[in-house]
Amino acid sequence: MKNSKRNTENVPRSAAAAPVSIPAAGLPWWAPLTAAILALIAYFPALNGPFLFDDLSLPMMSRGQGINYTEFLRRGVRALTNISLLADRDMWAMNTTPYHVENFLLHLVNALLVYFILKALLERAGRAGRGVVVSAGFGAAVFLLHPLQTEAVAYIASRSEVLSVFFSFAALLVFLRRKEAEVSWAHAILVLLLIGLGALSKETAVAMAGVLLLTDLYFHTGSPWEGVVKNWRLYAPLLAGGLAGGVFVYRLASHEGTAGSSLSFSPLDYLFTQFQVVWVYVRLFVAPYGQNLDHGFPITKAPGNVLSWLGLLAIVAAVGAAFVWRKKYPLASLGVLTFFVLLTPTSSILPIADPLVERRVYFASIGLLLIVCEFLSRWTLNGAKVAGLAALAAVLTVLTMFRSDLYTSTQAMWVESVKENPKNYRAQFQLAYSYYEKGECSKSLEHYKTASQLQKPDYRLLVDWALALDCAEDVPGAIARLQEATKLENTSTAWSTMGMIYGKRNQPELALDALNHALQLNRRDAMIWVYRGNVYFTMGRHEQALSDFEAALHRDPENPAAIQGKAAAMNALGRK
């Protein structure tokens, strides 16, 4: 035989391998509808989930402190994400369902963008016919239904992920679907605008610039660098904007304490840790077991350990293989590099407090999907194989459904996290607090004790531990924890909590001493004024109580405790 390779578009029809009837131009109408229904089934449990963990610290939850749309625009970082969440707060208040539905709808649109991106790249790689449609469709289905994506979709705080990826993928699709090889000014401006909007949703979107560059290097009709030079209209502004934005974000993150130089480990420590972390991401994509909202992955100090060096060698080998086989397997080669490029903002030398977070794979997963499409598009399609792909999509749906069920309560989320990693300090801490919120004080104290044995308690844990001890009627223990906290940080929370506990136990003088100290440290916290107002009220000093409740309402006009306290004080004073 002169040609031993089988053309998948001309495979003879037989009973054993009958080609599947799929239009060459695109998916049949029922395919996206079915995918959307499966996605709804997968994420339905989480659609009514409450605000959880990071959700409660979102800026839009602090309206009483004067944060508004203008303030978010002035700050710049994640402005669009914060504005969208603040708009949700203004429209839906504390009803979380609309927040979840918006995340879910963005995820659906992102999956559609993934389909068209994969299809465009398959066609650029010379693939045609049914293989392109099935490969791109299956890749989009995996993106839509994979349980590794759950944190990005089911977690309200992950609005930044789904929103920034929407703009980033839209930019890539506009770039790929242009008719001319050379980017026009109109296309350049549109792509720059979309990447800019992505960066205003989450700063990691700037990494999409690297993917645009890679596609030019791989698929430009002339020499690889010719496309880059011709598209200077796009790359020159991207380079300048990326450098300026990177410096700005690094400085801001360092100032806020969640990333950069403010952390207790160095950029090299973080880098050697990431040599391991990236392969955990790959393993979770290939075999999604052992997922965790809070992995508590330990930092590896430079110069690393055996696993760090093996991870680095594996990265070098993967990149080397991608270069060597770039012509034979262009999509897989591009996928390998795309995966690493899109992880660069969170998996390189910029230290971040949490070294391993599953939602970071949401953006980078398109690189892994390109590898899947490379080999899937080379298959000879038949009914059995397509049925197998459909069965795999169904399995992913079920796994994601069980995963999203964890986002229905704080307790479920942290019970699962502790089960996966009992030595995780933060998970034990948060599980303890979730039991406290439910009034299960004894269980709460068990986990606070466990957390304190894993790591020296920090300020927040000591304050919350004190609340659980107060709940269990152990006032001396609660006060002792709060006094420990004041030695770590001289901030108002511990003092105001101490005042609240003394006030409830009818020890007004001690309560006033603690609350006055708290007000010296922070006069903007409405609850300190409420606590002191309550103490004055119980002492019969109704005029002073009214003044404090009004001070609280001046800072937070919707504070229910202050509203109730003011009404009681005015009634006691005989005023309407």
Please provide a brief summary of the model.
The chain is mainly alpha-helical.
Q: What is the makeup of the main sheet? A: none
Secondary-structure element order, as H and E?
HHHHHHHHHHHHHHHHHHHHHHHHHH
The DSSP helix count reads 26
Broad shape: elongated
Termini gap: 100 Å
Report mean pLDDT, rounded to a whole number.
88
**How many beta-strand elements?**
0
Counting helices, strands and paired strands, the structural category is mainly alpha
Can you tell me the residue ranges where pLDDT is under 50 for at least 5 consecutive residues? 1-24
Quickly list its features.
disordered N terminus; elongated; 576 residues; mainly alpha; 26 helices
What does this structure look like?
It is a single chain. The longest helix is centred in the N-terminal third of the chain and has 28 residues. The chain contains 26 helices and no strands. It has about 575 residues and is mainly α.
